[in-house]
Design goal:
Helix 2 crosses helix 3, helix 2 packs across helix 5 and helix 3 packs across helix 4. The strands form two sheets. Strands 1-4 form a two-stranded antiparallel ribbon. By secondary structure, it is mostly helical. The chain has five helices and four strands. It folds into two domains: 45 residues, no CATH class; 83 residues, rRNA adenine dimethylase, C-terminal domain (Helicase, Ruva Protein, domain 3). The longest helix is centred in the last third of the chain and has 27 residues.
């Protein structure tokens, strides 16, 4: 979840993509005390502007929390449970963002999350317009 949360501020990549002849991995025994896992060298570039605009952050974090709230579940089920909507509604939302509903949450890129955020906000705006029209009549 942290990876997706910071991805709208920074672009990160394994150093191997910039320096193909370099070994980007550090063995655990390179450190003292040695951790249980090996490490990798990452390059981090800060974007000039966040990928998710500030006015959409609340929706972004709500979706991230909902998506990662269920372990090893398809995205449809995670969003359904986290957003308290029917699975079919989550499925329609994902389809409208151009995604398969059986994907796992950890497979979505930041650009795909951005697309889901945009669709959720479009639907919320449409819902507000419909309620406003209904109240006028």
């Amino acid at each position: 979840m942290l990876d997706r949360a910071v991805s709208f501020y920074i672009r990160h990549s394994c150093i191997y993509t910039q320096f193909p002849n370099a070994d980007p991995f550090l063995a655990a025994n390179s450190f003292h005390p040695a951790p249980k896992l090996d490490s990798a060298i990452l390059r981090i570039d800060i974007y000039d502007q966040p990928l998710i605009p500030n006015e959409r952050l609340k929706t972004f974090f709500k979706l991230i929390k909902a998506g990662f709230g269920q372990n090893r579940e398809p995205l449809r089920n995670s969003l359904s449970a986290g957003l308290h909507v029917k699975p079919q509604e989550a499925e329609v939302l994902l389809a409208s963002a151009g995604m398969g509903f059986m994907r796992r949450v950890e497979t979505l890129s930041i650009e795909e999350w951005k697309g889901v955020v945009e669709k959720v906000e479009e639907e919320e705006q449409e819902g507000r317009r419909m309620r406003s029209r209904a109240n006028r009549n």
